[in-house]
Design a protein that fits this description.
By secondary structure, the protein is mainly beta. It contains 2 helices and 13 strands, in the order βαββββββββββββα. The protein has helices at residues 5-8, 153-161, and strands at 2-3, 16-19, 22-25, 32-36, 39-49, 54-59, 80-85, 97-107, 110-114, 125-127, 133-136, 139-140, 148-150. A 5-stranded antiparallel β-sheet has the order 7-8-9-13-12, with no helix packed on it. The chain has a 4-stranded antiparallel β-sheet with strand order 1-6-5-4.
C-alpha cells in the first residue's frame, strides 16, 4: 500500500525529553490498520522517506486486487487528473468520494493540482486519464481547499524503484 509518510507517522515525538533534571525516554510504537469497505488488515511499514513524504505498507491479510500502475511521464499542465479519497474522514461502505481536477504545474519541487482537497485526503493517489498514478495528495493549501500539492512523478518512480528501507 502506497501512502504519505505523515499518514504512517502522524505525530513527531522526541526519543528523549530532558526537563528540570528529569529525563524521560520515549519508546515509540506504531499500529497501522488498513481498511477499505469490508476489508481490514494490520500493516507494517516496509519503506518510508520523510523528505518525499512517501511510505509503503505491507498488509498481513492478502487481498486479490490489481495493483495500480505508475505513470512513466508526468502530466502536462492542464491535463485532467482525479483521485478518490476521504477528506475529513468521510468514507463508508456505501460511498467513496471522487474528485476531478487539473494538473497546474510545478512549484518548489512539488506538483500542484487544481483539485478539491482537504484534511484526510493525504495519501490518496492522483491519477491521469489512463488511471495511472502520477502523484499523491500530500499537502493542501491552507487558505483554499482547491489547491493540493504532491510528489513529482519522477521522485515517486525513484522511491518505488530503490531497495532502501526506512530512509
Amino acid at each position: 500500500v502506497l501512502t504519505a509518510e505523515h499518514v504512517c507517522y502522524p505525530d513527531e515525538i522526541p526519543d528523549q525529553i530532558d526537563q528540570d533534571g528529569v529525563t524521560i525516554t520515549v519508546t515509540k510504537t506504531t499500529n497501522i490498520t488498513v481498511r477499505s469497505q469490508q476489508y481490514s488488515s494490520s500493516a507494517k511499514i516496509v519503506k518510508k522517506d520523510k523528505q518525499l513524504d512517501l511510505c509503503i505498507l505491507e498488509i498481513e491479510e492478502k487481498i486479490k486486487i490489481k495493483p495500480a500502475k505508475i505513470a512513466k511521464k508526468p502530466p502536462k499542465r492542464g491535463d485532467s487528473v482525479h483521485y478518490a479519497g476521504a477528506p475529513y474522514g468521510m468514507i463508508s461502505e456505501s460511498f467513496l468520494l471522487a474528485f476531478d481536477g487539473y494538473y497546474s504545474g510545478d512549484y518548489s519541487k512539488a506538483m500542484v493540482f487544481s483539485l478539491p482537497c482537504a484534511q484526510g485526503a493525504s495519501g490518496s493517489s492522483i491519477r491521469n486519464r489512463k488511471n495511472e498514478i502520477v502523484s499523491m495528495v500530500q499537502r493542501v493549501h491552507p487558505g483554499f481547499n482547491h489547491i493540493c500539492l504532491g510528489v513529482t512523478t519522477k521522485e515517486l518512480r525513484g522511491f518505488l524503484s530503490t531497495k532502501h528501507l526506512e530512509k
